[in-house]
Each structure stands twice: as structure tokens, then as C-alpha cells.
Design brief:
162 residues, alpha+beta, two-stranded antiparallel sheet, 22% helix
Length: 162
């Protein structure tokens, strides 16, 4: 009997609270504050989807031969009208991918396209709940702890807590 060994596609790992807090804090200090100042309003810090949505997207991706997902950083247009409160804010777009062998034995994760109503279209998912502007029960008593609280010194512009 011939046994074929399947190559693992795993590239990530579970990380600690400290790690998550560190990368969020770095992002806020190195990118978010400048983005928010440029926009003239607080940029989004997170994007949320339900587990049901994620499972549905992953199942659809698998049906179309995908073996991975890319998360693309993006931003809505400044005049975005479908959800005006999202205008100019950063977002995440999920795109189903299929790993292929590239030149010289390298691997590439190619975006998956499917046949849609108007021809081939990327198998993507967007429109997460962004925070801000939608950050849940702001100001209400809540026993849960949120990660990533930071104090940022903006020099002459003062300090902010985010």
C-alpha cells in the first residue's frame, strides 16, 4: 500500500494574552493614532464576525477547493454610502486561497475565484462589525475584560486612552 504524506499548511500558532496585548499596543502607537489624525475621526481598531459567518465562509471556501484564507487590510472609500459610518475606516477582507507550487519549489497562496452572476469573481467576505464605531456596550456595566487598553502620549496634542 502506498502512503502519501500530506504537507501541513499550518503557519500560525496560539499566542498568549501578553502577545496579543503587545501587538495591539504597538499598532495603536505606530499606526492607529496617525490614521485617526489623518481621518479626523477614530479609525477602526477591530473587525468582528460571528462564528456562524466564519464557518459559512470557510465551508464555502472548502467547497470551491480552498485550503486557506488571506486577511487583506483595506479601507472604505471616503464617500462610502452603503454604511456611511464606515467611510474612510480601515477594514479586513477575507479571501479564500489555494496553495500552489511556485517557481523554484516555492509555494504561493493564490486567491480563489468562482463563477458568479457576472462572470468570475473573487471568493471574498467583508462588512465586519467595526470598532469604532460599533464597540458594543460602551459605558454600560460589563464584567468582561477587554484587551488592549493603552495610554498614548500625543505630545502637544495631549494624551488619550484607547
Amino acid at each position: 500500500m502506498l502512503t502519501i504524506e500530506k504537507k501541513s499548511l499550518n503557519v500560525g500558532k496560539f499566542v498568549s494574552t501578553q502577545h496579543v496585548d503587545s501587538v495591539i499596543r504597538n499598532y495603536k502607537q505606530e499606526r492607529w493614532i496617525q490614521n485617526s489624525e489623518r481621518l479626523g475621526k477614530e479609525d477602526s481598531l477591530s473587525a468582528w464576525w460571528s462564528i456562524e459567518e466564519l464557518e459559512n465562509f470557510l465551508e464555502t471556501a472548502k467547497i470551491h477547493g480552498a485550503d486557506g484564507v488571506k486577511f487583506y487590510f483595506g479601507a472604505y472609500a471616503k464617500d462610502y454610502t452603503e454604511k456611511p459610518e464606515y467611510a474612510g475606516l480601515q477594514t479586513l477582507a477575507m479571501v479564500a486561497t489555494k496553495q500552489k507550487e511556485g517557481a523554484y519549489g516555492s509555494t504561493v497562496n493564490k486567491d480563489v475565484y468562482v463563477n458568479g452572476e457576472n462572470g468570475n469573481t473573487i471568493l471574498g467576505y467583508n462588512m465586519a462589525q467595526l470598532c469604532p464605531p460599533f464597540c458594543g456596550r460602551k459605558g454600560l456595566s460589563d464584567d468582561s475584560e477587554e484587551i488592549g487598553i493603552s495610554i498614548i502620549d500625543r505630545g502637544d496634542a495631549g494624551m488619550i486612552i484607547i
